Task: inverse folding
């Protein structure tokens, strides 16, 4: 892709040269990145199986192929920074440190799930982990992210917000309104376009005018940054610039990360709009897990044996999550009326909902 | 008569109307190359070409408004929302533009547009994807709101909707796409604004629409097994409401249960109940009962979602209550 018209970074003081340099990870921290990516892959594969067995229902969008994006970008954050994404949310939730158990249990609709079985695949939440959803409506999360960043700035906590969206979501009005607000009010938010080239069955060339998508940052005088989403190191490096800009100067940025999904749009999508060869080609070219694994071998921070152990542990964790979800209780029917209103402390309690 | 699915019936209606009138175009997400997220538009791109069957970006507000503009300029767009749950980002265009431009301009413009797509709950897709918005759109004065329950009506009503010179919200229910029924061949239109009695009975009237009609029919079976004769009225069109058909049934049975998938507060059933008590107060032998989706956001877990949905059991219980 031709180089973006968008400014690399807006600040005179290029954050890459500023004192806060991207921290060099220790070998074991680097191996942890790989471990997270493998865990997401195995979790998703188990989820796919459970979906085929009708233990998971509704829509289920897998993250397979995109693991380096969530893992690399979230690794640049503080634990109290905010993360928010769309419906393809399992990978971000796991990268954010939510447990495989609570995530799988949510997919199974169990009371032990991260949203008590009420949200399902598209609506994971963990306030504790500063993971603010899982949002089902395309683009719907983008103004929320501006609001979360607004509150962070308002409270002066120095935290930042990362908001993920797809290449299709850039054409929602809400996204443009959010970008303008974020730039106008200098909010510490990073919008990450996970460009996997397709929105459902529509290739990006048929859905968007104006490439690369990161150019949209220009119109709002916002930093525009691109990264290779198959390379977890590149994601880390580029995200770091954006995070520093938000953290130190309270400036938003738009980061376009090139990636690719290996599965259908959701479990219900037969994927007839692209060829098996296309997918195979992409895997061969730039499969993010093997790419990083090979690098770690070369760096001599990982042996094949250790990698096998990572695989074994990841499969075991995913299987444990399945077993936990299976063994967990269904929600009591009475819980259907819980969680509608927050308890009141200043006014009398609301009456229970009307209905039959 | 051919027995076809609701999906095929809708597809025939689109195809026949596009054939008949070159001003009819279809646009929406994945309607063309993907052949429709629910395959309702299958084959139409191949038949009518990319000039008339258009894949849009995920920009509901943009393409719904574009459709209204095209209608102002004389086209007859059919705008598909992949599901009606996604129409909310286009709400302003539907309500303020499609719904008011004719009036605001003193009648200078007609807005012959059809917004259509899938809706409904029960398939465990959670709170954001499960809306049944017929009551929201029925609240717009100029809007026609159609909610078919059977394939023949789906076809006949969609054809009428496309020929209507007014904005129409044509709200399909995902649970019914595979439902089969007899559909007359050829150019048969169903009149907008007429309910249909889909089961005759004498002791209680069950009034429903769309997927809820099938819930009401299942309840009527249960009631029959208990020796209770229920009449089922399928409204077909929420707006305009077929009040004469409703009243005739109420006069006959004196008891009413309204079945609707939408939430209770100002659901269309509240309006129907008002019309009945206002116009046929003396015919009623019991308070009108309503069975609706429960007043909570739609939950994902199956046990919870099933509790939220109107069920034949809940309708049967309500019907028995009216019988004392
Ligand atoms: C407002 C809205 N319109 C349509 C949909 C249906 N839908 C869900 S995902 C999707 C494609 C989104 O593609 P993209 O933004 O590229 O994200 P990806 O799925 O590739 O991660 C569509 C059309 C929706 N959920 N919300
Ligand atoms: Mg995409």
Result:
């Amino acid at each position: 892709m031709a180089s973006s018209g968008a400014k690399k970074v807006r600040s005179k003081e290029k954050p890459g040269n500023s004192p806060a340099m991207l921290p060099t990870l220790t070998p074991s921290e680097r191996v942890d990145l790989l471990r997270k990516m493998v865990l997401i892959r195995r979790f998703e594969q188990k989820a796919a199986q459970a979906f085929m067995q009708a233990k998971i229902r509704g829509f289920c969008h897998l993250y397979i192929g995109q693991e380096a994006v969530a893992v690399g970008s979230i690794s640049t954050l503080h634990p109290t920074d905010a993360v928010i994404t769309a419906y393809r949310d399992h990978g971000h939730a796991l990268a954010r440190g939510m447990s495989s158990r609570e995530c799988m249990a949510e997919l199974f609709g169990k009371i032990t799930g991260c949203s008590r079985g009420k949200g399902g695949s598209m609506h994971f939440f963990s306030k504790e982990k500063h993971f603010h959803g899982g949002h089902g409506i395309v683009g719907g999360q983008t103004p929320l992210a501006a609001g979360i960043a607004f509150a962070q700035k308002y409270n002066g906590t120095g935290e930042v917000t990362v908001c993920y969206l797809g290449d299709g979501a850039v054409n929602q009005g809400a996204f443009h309104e959010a970008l303008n607000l974020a730039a106008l009010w200098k909010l510490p938010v990073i919008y990450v376009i996970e460009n996997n080239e397709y929105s459902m069955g529509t290739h990006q060339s048929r859905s968007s005018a104006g490439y690369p998508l990161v150019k949209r940052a220009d119109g709002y005088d916002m930093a525009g940054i691109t990264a290779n989403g198959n390379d977890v190191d590149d994601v880390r490096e580029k995200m770091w610039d954006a995070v520093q800009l938000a953290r130190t100067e309270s400036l938003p940025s738009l980061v376009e990360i090139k990636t690719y999904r290996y599965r259908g749009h959701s479990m219900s999508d037969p994927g007839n709009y692209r060829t098996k060869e296309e997918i195979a080609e992409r895997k061969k070219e730039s499969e993010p897990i093997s790419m990083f694994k090979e690098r770690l071998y070369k760096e001599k921070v990982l042996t094949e044996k250790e990698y096998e152990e990572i695989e074994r542990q990841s499969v075991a964790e995913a299987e444990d999550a399945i077993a936990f979800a299976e063994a967990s209780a269904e929600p009591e029917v009475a819980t259907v009326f819980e969680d509608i209103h927050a308890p009141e402390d200043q006014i009398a309690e609301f009456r229970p909902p009307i209905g039959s | 008569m051919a027995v076809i699915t609701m999906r095929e019936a809708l597809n025939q209606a689109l195809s026949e109307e596009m054939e008949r009138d070159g001003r009819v175009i279809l646009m929406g997400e994945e309607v063309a190359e993907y052949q429709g997220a629910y395959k309702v538009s299958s084959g139409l791109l191949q038949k009518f070409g990319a000039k008339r069957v258009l894949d849009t970006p995920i920009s509901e507000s943009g393409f719904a408004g574009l459709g209204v503009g095209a209608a102002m300029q004389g086209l007859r767009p059919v705008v598909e929302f992949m599901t009606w749950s996604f129409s909310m980002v286009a709400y302003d265009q539907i309500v303020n533009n499609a719904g008011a431009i004719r009036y605001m301009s003193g009648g200078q413009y007609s807005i012959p547009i059809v917004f259509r797509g899938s809706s409904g709950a029960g398939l465990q897709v959670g709170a954001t994807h499960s809306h049944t918005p017929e009551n929201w759109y029925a609240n717009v004065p100029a809007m026609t709101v159609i909610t078919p329950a059977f394939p023949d009506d789906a076809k006949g009503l969609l054809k009428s909707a496309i020929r209507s010179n007014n904005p129409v919200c044509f709200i399909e229910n995902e649970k019914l796409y595979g439902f089969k029924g007899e559909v007359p061949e050829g150019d048969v239109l169903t009149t907008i604004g007429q309910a249909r009695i889909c089961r005759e009975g004498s002791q209680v009237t069950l009034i429903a629409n769309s997927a809820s009609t099938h819930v009401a029919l299942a309840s009527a079976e249960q009631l029959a097994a208990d020796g209770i004769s229920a009449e089922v009225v399928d409204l077909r069109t929420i707006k305009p409401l077929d009040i004469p058909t409703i009243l005739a049934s109420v006069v006959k049975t004196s008891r009413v249960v309204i079945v609707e998938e939408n939430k209770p507060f100002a659901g269309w059933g509240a309006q129907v109940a008002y019309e009945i008590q206002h116009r046929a107060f003396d015919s009623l032998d019991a308070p009108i009962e309503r069975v609706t989706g429960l007043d909570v956001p739609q939950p994902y877990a199956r046990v919870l979602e099933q509790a939220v949905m109107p069920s034949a059991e809940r309708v049967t219980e309500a019907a028995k209550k009216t019988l004392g």
